[in-house]
Amino acid sequence: MAQPNRPPRRVAHSSRQNTFFGGAAVLAAGILVVKLIGMFYKIPLLNIIGEQGSADFNNAYNIYAVLLTISTAGLPVAVSKLVSEANALGRQNQVQRTFYLALSLFLVLGVLSFLVMAFGADQLAGLMNDSMAAPGIRALAPAVICVGCLSAFRGYAQGHGNMTPTAVSQIIEALCKLTVGLGLAYWLVNQGADTSRAAAGAITGVTVGTIVALAYMLFDYLTGRGREAQLTDDRPEAAGTILRNLLMIAIPITISSSMVGIVTVIDTSLVQGQLQRALLENPDTWRLYESFTDFSPLQEALSSWQAALPEGAALSMSLLDQQVAQALSLQAQGGTLPALESAALALHTALEDISRTLYGNYSGALNIYNLPTSLMAAVTAAVIPAVSGALARHDRRGAGRITGSALRISALAACPMAVGLFVLGEPIMALIFPRLNPQLAGPLLSTLGVATLFVCMMLVCNSILQAHGFVTLPVAIMVLGGVVKIITNYNVVIQPSIGIYGAPMGNILCFALCMVLDLIVIARVIPRRPRYLPVFAKPAVASVAMGGAAWAVYGLLSRVLSSNQVNELGETVRALSRMGNAVATLLAIGVAVAVYFVLVVALRAISRDDLALMPKGEKIARILRL
Predict the structure, then answer these.
(1) How big is the CA angle at 53 (ends 428 and 115), to the nearest 5 degrees?
(2) Distance (Å, rounded) from C-alpha 68 to C-alpha 74?
(3) Tens of pLDDT along 111-127?
(4) Cα–Cα distance for residue pair 525/489, rounded to 1 Å
(5) Cβ 429 vs Cβ 387: under 8 Å
(6) Model pTM score
(7) Of the candidates 423, 451, 425, 450, which has an alpha carbon nearest to the alpha carbon of residue 440?
(8) What's the per-residue H, E or C state across 368-405?
């Protein structure tokens, strides 16, 4: 009988070998494709399901994201690490047992998450202050099981150094989400379904995508590496030992990863709850939204509730929540609702409808705001292996040079995107999301544009710190920023003169704090760190000039192309007005890009070393004569 650590007689070799950098490039390319597909999914989706549907979709997806992170964040990394170690020693039976145990663990966690989402959908939607998100939560429930199994197969493939199945499965998942999700949402809207059902249809595309991607990964496993266990005779470790090793790696990663999703859910719930509370307890808040929302249903519901209340009762959200809970309990028992509980339920629905409309516009702005962070995926994916490789060669000067280049490239990309969103927030929203209200969503996007700079730089700083071995410190900083975000939004959104316009302020303070703390840590613990003034000064100057050019071009063109006869000629002229906005916005963006490019070259804001990190960087440097 073979001894536990005896070298195997036969070791399988895969015909597909990926270098470390090649694997990182495959994953980075896959991430970029998935992000682009996601953009083509979210933009038409919001124009199909509208403001309230957008709120329902995002509330359901945020719940799914948290449960998904808890059940799958750390285990794929643990599987990849243990499989890689066992594979390096030729212990294929150890590899297979690790994989089977991980798959079993994923199934258990996935089933538990499925049960929570399927049978607790109404309660979870209530926690988000959006009862209409429940159908979407139920539609997503099966996806948790599938994604858990997907994570096991992806970790197994990555442990063998093969990144291609992961990238391909992610693209398959995104494509199914795009085609099935949009198709179902469009069909349901045409069939007269309400926005919550249309949002659930769109989310069904996510579930279908996970099923198809899982089928692909299973096929890849069965036709490839799944038969390697027959080629060795090593004795695997006991199941308890492997599970303990898996959990020791997975639990810290899961805790750190889930914090971001948990903060997002708490913040989303609080913002919508505070919007409803402000609308109920302080009617002065209504003035903020009179041009966007019809308040007559709310006024009628509020008057009916006040008439049913005992004389002298104070209007408060806590009292309304208590009566709504009683009404739902009576409904569940099949009883007839008294006048007070019936009025409370109607008022709660009216408040929820307005908060869904407001938050739906904010969700649309968030979708545009998230695009620049998606584009940073390629930079963050390249930083960790590049810096780690330099440190492994004891090349501290090289690591410092890569760190400086990564910061400069990120600043060169983030500054103009932030300024562009700030200057053109309203026309961009009118161009991309005609179903939303640009007068409401535009200022929200402009404010979020300020946060774009901070979040992009924070992501790159996190990658730099992780490459230098500081894995948990960025997570702790992000948790601190998340707490600041929650506290800020809780206290600002309730103000009658601010309302929903205060929601982006939490993002600004959160990510500004994270970025500043990250830069301070980099300056103190990383040798040969770059000087920060040259990193930010030239991109900032070029971006401000670019923003001025974009503002001037859009202002001039919008006046030339606008019509004074919109009220007389109706929908035809309104369509021409939208076309005029599109032309003015696109030309303003084109001029801004040209101005920024010229200034970046003129100011020498980028160096040959920076371009060396990019594909075809040497060729670009020669063209620019750097």
Answers:
(1) 130
(2) 11
(3) 888 898 889 888 888 88
(4) 33
(5) no
(6) 0.78
(7) 425
(8) HHHHHHHHCHHHHHHHHHHHHHHHHCCCHHHHHHHHHH
